[in-house]
Design goal:
By secondary structure, the chain is of the alpha/beta class. The chain has one domain: NAD(P)-binding Rossmann-like Domain (Rossmann fold), CATH 3.40.50. It contains 9 helices and 7 strands, in the order βαβαβαβαβααβαααβ. A 7-stranded parallel β-sheet has the order 3-2-1-4-5-6-7, sandwiched between helices. Helix 1 links the parallel strand 1 and strand 2. Helix 1 packs across helix 9, helix 3 runs parallel beside helix 4 and helix 4 packs parallel to helix 6. The longest helix has 26 residues.
Length: 245
């Protein structure tokens, strides 16, 4: 699963799952463009320490023009683009009757429209790659729903439909498009759960523990690699058995 000579563009790369994926791809040989609302300079230095080229970019993926500039800049700096990881996302939870229009719009703008903006901006380069890969980080919430998260669930479900549509559009050019649906992973979001909520949650997970960002990163590496060349349009759960179809 070596990625020598490949260039990856990872959104939401400053922490959590995005950071873990960036480090995993870099360790496998990929040069990395790292995007977050605050440029992840410390991560960039860590990746340079692995002997890889990298660029840290500050941009809001809900801004289509900013995304276009970011992708063009990354390609100019690193010489191409082979792997796109749409990981950036936010949650602004509220019960539907209390949800403000701004909360609905902001979550859809970042999670779903941001994925569209990044993929559209990267497409021209991915279609020229000998091994183009699109990896979208969705969520089990997009599959099962969750009270108080109608906006988040809708955005993540939308990413699944988007993933499969792009797989059909780009498949003839050898570009794969897959999604990873993490369950409850140890991140800043889950750290805010109270002990009672965490205990109740663990009772629903057959493996009895939260996942780690590295669990998601391992699968992302596989999907980015030549080993996954014949896999596209799929959604892979990394959730300890929480969702079983």
């Amino acid at each position: 699963m070596q990625l020598n000579g490949r260039v990856a563009f990872i959104t939401g790369a400053r922490r959590g799952i995005g950071r873990a994926i960036a480090l995993k791809l870099a360790a496998a040989g990929a040069d990395c463009a790292l995007l977050a609302r605050t440029a992840p300079e410390e991560l960039a230095e860590e990746i340079r320490g692995l002997g890889r080229r990298t660029v840290a970019i500050a941009a809001d993926i809900s801004d289509a023009e900013a995304v276009e500039i970011a992708v063009k800049g990354a390609v100019a700096e690193l010489g191409g683009l082979d792997i796109l990881v749409n990981n950036a996302g936010i949650a602004e939870d509220n019960l539907l009757l209390r949800m403000k229009l701004e909360q609905w719009r902001r979550v859809l703008d970042v999670n779903l429209s941001g994925t569209f903006y990044c993929t559209k901006a990267a497409a021209r380069y991915l279609l020229k790659s000998p091994a183009g890969r699109i990896i979208n980080i969705t969520s089990v919430i997009g599959q099962m729903g969750n009270a108080g998260q109608a906006n988040y669930a809708a955005s993540k479900a939308g990413m699944i439909g988007f993933t499969r549509s792009i797989a059909k559009e780009f498949g003839s050019r050898g570009v794969t498009s897959n999604a990873i649906a993490p369950g409850f992973i140890t991140t800043d979001m889950t750290s805010e759960l109270g002990e009672d909520a965490k205990t109740a949650l663990l009772g629903q997970i057959p493996l009895g523990s939260l996942g780690e960002p590295e669990d998601v990163a391992e699968l992302a590496l596989f999907l980015a690699s030549p080993a996954a060349r014949y896999i596209t349009g799929q959604v892979f759960n990394v959730d300890g058995g929480l969702v079983m179809d």
